[in-house]
Specification:
Length: about 220
């Protein structure tokens, strides 16, 4: 028993010496934490009143505003052409967002086929247009130098009239021509409300399909 007691005492002494002088210190039990820091003299506690003003701090990422919805209108169309333009918008399923704005515009240019001399001759020419899948025309019947001519569109600018003429020639019409003609013509603008970026792109595609038309922000 005496020998066992002495062994226990010696073991405790040896463990104490190892843990006190040999074993590495843990960070949580470090008695001198600041002395183990790199350049501890440069550490400084800053009070809230010593913080720099907001304007001097790094700028936060800019907030991107959502795309504003627009009202766009497409036109202008004669009363005869407006239904064809509306049909082109049917795949967009616009519903209540689609409306009409009617105006009267001064048309300085028109595309036409010269007077045919009589009603039967004008009707014959109209049948030739229908055979080429051209339905947007009318026969001029009032008295004057253009009686029995076939009008294929009236336009505010010569460029728009020339675009219409080029389209007609692409469809096989060879006798049409462009000339100036001052007239007040009822027109239709198709207005679309709540237009975002994706819808704007689809409206542009539709507008390209009808020569002489334009897409712009709504006129209130």
């Amino acid at each position: 028993m005496r020998t066992l007691f002495l062994l226990l005492v010696l073991g405790n002494v040896a463990f104490f010496a190892w843990s006190r002088y040999i074993a590495p210190l843990e960070a949580s039990a470090d008695p001198l934490p600041l002395e183990r820091q790199i350049e501890p003299e440069k550490l400084k506690v800053i009070a809230p009143s010593d913080l720099p003003p907001v304007s001097a701090r790094p700028a936060s990422p800019p907030v991107v505003a959502p795309l504003a919805l627009k009202c766009l209108e497409w036109g202008s169309f004669t009363l005869a052409d407006a239904p064809r333009a509306e049909k082109a918008l049917e795949p967009l399923a616009l519903g209540a967002r689609l409306a009409q704005r009617r105006t009267e515009e001064a048309a300085g240019w028109w595309v036409f086929i010269a007077p045919q001399g009589s009603r039967p001759a004008a009707l014959k020419k109209a049948a030739e247009l229908k055979a080429l899948s051209i339905d947007d025309y009318f026969i001029v019947q009032e008295d004057g130098p253009y009686r029995w001519a076939l009008s294929l569109g009236v336009f505010r600018t010569e460029d728009a009239a020339q675009a219409r003429l080029a389209a007609l020639r692409g469809q096989g019409v060879r006798s049409a021509q462009v000339a100036s003609r001052e007239a007040i013509v009822p027109k239709v603008w198709l207005q679309v409300k709540g237009v975002d970026g994706a819808l704007h792109a689809r409206l542009r595609d539709a507008a390209r399909a009808i020569e002489g038309s334009e897409l712009r922000e709504c006129v209130q």
